[in-house]
Backbone:
């Protein structure tokens, strides 16, 4: 488990929020470096990540190492009191590696190789890459392992961002090795993959390939195992680098995750326990319907990976990125709101990609802390202001987020739910997770994101969106939770298959049938754009199913669509608790109302935030006190109950906190106010807020 508090990285005795960026001095001359550190100090930058893409400079030809420039950069930073997050430099091999060993280039599912010239251009199973990258790590770790400037190790970079899946012969051999370890016998593999179907039964290990492109749909079991294998294979590279670093250095080691909507390659629930601290990169994705909601979700999921420990936001953009179809610049106050949303939700370190905007290379139109136009800019003033704010917020560092509800999420479920040949292409896992999350957030509820099968005892309500493949063990955790008095909300397409993605027979939703007190005999997905009406005024799209109550009470029914009169939402008393089933894709408002009702019944205290107000309320709590973060994403001024000291304006607040449109306020609550507010039905629920552990 993550073991190094981010707040103690720079100084073991004083809790601080780290502030900085990726710094790429190899793109600049030493005269510019001097200017860089001067401005870093002005902005109160205290941690920079260097040597992320340094390999070609450090080892221009095989075995010829040159550390002169890196030595100078590290010394310069150190002299200026700026700590170093030192990259191992292995993210992108230099030209010579794949020129000399073309077999180390990655191969796509269509059998074509990708050329050198981008980044991460290597096969994750390549022995040459492994050997040469570890030779570099050995040099770097030996040279800088005990340098006082180095406070963190940064293995590679966004591992698996581009090259997670490779389909070359070397990868196929490694895949077979991984399968042998997983299944031991071919019989077990054949059973798990269901190879009785379409004449796919294997009689010899050597016949098994990676699931490259086929004419008809490929084998789903094989497809999922390739994803598991790819995640493990890259984790193997991380562990090899980490273990080598540890022979030379006591400094904590991590890598930057991509808990984000656009990348799903690695199963971070398996990775996180290997990190000394959890670090994440997050960029607003303007292809999504609600980019800032997704930021909050990603922040909560990142915190979940560290079991509630504060995390390090390793990269974000000060304004626009360069890799979306339209790269939207941040509006007034948006960078501050984004940043403080991360802090509210558990970040104790804030960094950007990158320090100084590049003038060459494919990222030259990506924003940076120091823009092309220089220091006479609003962006630079915002960056300097943020440095001051984060310094003042040092007292918050180390506290933990107070959460009310558990939301089950995982990367493996994401892979499985999104497989092809499902009843409809319109059920996308992340959409369903985001819809549930957004509905909870709109009610001011803070969510802990937990893995399928994680203990739920600390919660009153668990929400389980579209969890398609559910092992007996995972189902058992949810059943026991409800039996003992917990409340659960399960949404459609959950529980359908077992841990091997084999359909559970006898009625859907298989694994949760007893718990939910329902049984479905057929799915009735809707046409694109079709909407059905429910008898409580709701509407639904995408999904309906023919549901038979088997003990559950019917909360609402379809009026029209394929199943008029049939149940749409049910509620079942099970043991001492209650289990809800949402058998349709409810419109946003109805989903929020349903989750609100389930929360209130579960005894979760609501913050009083009105759905649609765009006010985000989160609390962090620790021995030093409790802090209320109020982030106003909307265009109208807002108010919230609070008493204490506001830390951005340094104002005393007595009962009512004003949060102007677009502003953020952070209140150190007076102890009496630190107790939870009344729940929406007016009844106090004093013990329902908790510090997650
Ligand atoms: C990340 C990456 C950085 C930079 C950034 C641009 O994926 O780690 O090196 O490319 O995105 O948004």
Residues:
């Amino acid at each position: 488990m993550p073991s190094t508090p981010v707040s103690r990285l720079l100084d073991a005795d004083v809790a601080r929020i780290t502030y900085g960026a990726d710094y790429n001095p190899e793109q600049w001359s030493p005269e510019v470096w001097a200017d860089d550190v001067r401005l870093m100090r002005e902005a109160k930058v205290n941690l920079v990540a260097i040597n992320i893409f340094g390999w070609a400079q450090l080892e221009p030809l095989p075995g010829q190492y040159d550390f002169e420039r890196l030595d100078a950069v590290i010394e310069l930073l150190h002299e200026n009191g700026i700590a170093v997050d030192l990259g191992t430099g292995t993210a992108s091999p230099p030209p010579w590696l794949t020129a000399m060993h073309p077999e180390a280039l990655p191969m796509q599912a269509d059998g074509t190789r990708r050329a050198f010239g981008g980044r991460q251009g290597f096969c994750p199973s390549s022995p040459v890459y492994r050997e040469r990258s570890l030779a570099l790590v050995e040099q770097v770790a030996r040279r800088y392992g005990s340098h006082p400037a180095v406070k963190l190790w940064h293995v590679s970079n966004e591992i698996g961002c581009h090259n997670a899946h490779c389909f070359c012969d070397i990868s196929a051999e490694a895949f077979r090795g991984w399968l042998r370890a997983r299944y031991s016998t071919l019989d077990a593999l054949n059973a798990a993959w269901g190879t009785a179907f379409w004449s796919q039964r294997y009689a010899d290990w050597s016949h098994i390939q990676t699931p490259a492109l086929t004419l008809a749909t490929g084998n789903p079991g094989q497809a999922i195992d390739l994803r598991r294998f790819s995640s493990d294979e890259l984790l193997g590279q991380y562990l090899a680098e980490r273990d080598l670093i540890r022979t030379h250095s006591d400094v904590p080691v991590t890598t930057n995750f991509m808990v984000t909507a656009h990348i799903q390659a690695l199963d971070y629930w398996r990775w996180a326990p290997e990190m000394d601290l959890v670090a994440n990169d997050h960029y607003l994705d303007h292809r999504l319907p609600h980019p800032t909601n997704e930021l909050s979700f990603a922040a909560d999921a990142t915190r979940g990976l560290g079991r509630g420990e504060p995390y390090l936001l390793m990269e974000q953009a000060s304004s626009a990125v360069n890799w979306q179809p339209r790269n939207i610049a941040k509006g007034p106050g948006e960078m501050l709101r984004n940043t403080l949303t991360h802090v509210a939700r558990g970040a104790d370190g804030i960094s950007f990609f990158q320090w100084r905007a590049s003038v060459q290379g494919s990222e030259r139109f990506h924003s940076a802390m120091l823009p092309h136009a220089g220091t006479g800019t609003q962006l630079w003033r915002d960056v300097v202001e943020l440095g001051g704010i984060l310094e003042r917020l040092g007292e918050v560092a180390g506290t933990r987020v107070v959460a009310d509800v558990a939301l089950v999420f995982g990367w493996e479920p994401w892979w499985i739910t999104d497989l092809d040949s499902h009843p409809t292409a319109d059920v996308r896992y992340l959409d369903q997770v985001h819809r549930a999350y957004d509905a909870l957030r709109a009610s001011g509820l803070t969510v802990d994101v937990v893995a399928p099968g994680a203990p739920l005892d600390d919660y009153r309500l668990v929400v389980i969106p579209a969890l398609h493949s559910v092992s007996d063990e995972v189902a058992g955790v949810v059943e026991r939770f409800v039996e003992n008095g917990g409340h659960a909300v399960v949404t459609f397409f959950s529980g359908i298959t077992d841990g091997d993605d084999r359909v559970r027979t006898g009625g859907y939703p298989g694994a949760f049938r007893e718990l939910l007190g329902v049984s479905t005999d057929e799915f009735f997905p809707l046409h694109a754009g079709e909407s059905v009406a429910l008898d409580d005024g709701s509407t639904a799209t995408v999904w309906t199913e023919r549901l038979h109550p088997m003990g559950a009470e019917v909360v609402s029914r379809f009026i029209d669509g394929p199943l008029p009169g049939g149940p749409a939402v049910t509620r079942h008393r099970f043991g001492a608790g209650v289990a809800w089933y949402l058998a349709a894709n409810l419109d946003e408002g109805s989903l929020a109302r349903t989750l609100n009702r389930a929360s209130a019944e579960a005894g979760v205290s609501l913050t009083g935030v009105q759905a649609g107000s765009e006010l985000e309320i989160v609390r962090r709590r620790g021995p030093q006190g409790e802090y209320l973060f109020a982030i106003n994403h909307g265009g109208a001024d807002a108010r919230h109950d609070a008493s204490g000291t506001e830390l951005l304006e340094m104002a005393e607040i007595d009962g009512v906190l004003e949060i102007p449109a677009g502003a953020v306020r952070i209140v150190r609550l007076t102890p009496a106010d630190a107790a939870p507010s009344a729940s929406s039905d007016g009844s106090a629920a004093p013990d329902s807020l908790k510090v997650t552990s």
Notes: The two ends are 13 Å apart (CA to CA). Residues 677-693 have pLDDT under 50 and may be disordered. Residues 157-158, 161, 281, 283, 315, 321, 353, 363, 366 surround beta-D-galactopyranose (CB under 6 Å). The first strand starts at residue 18 and ends at 22.
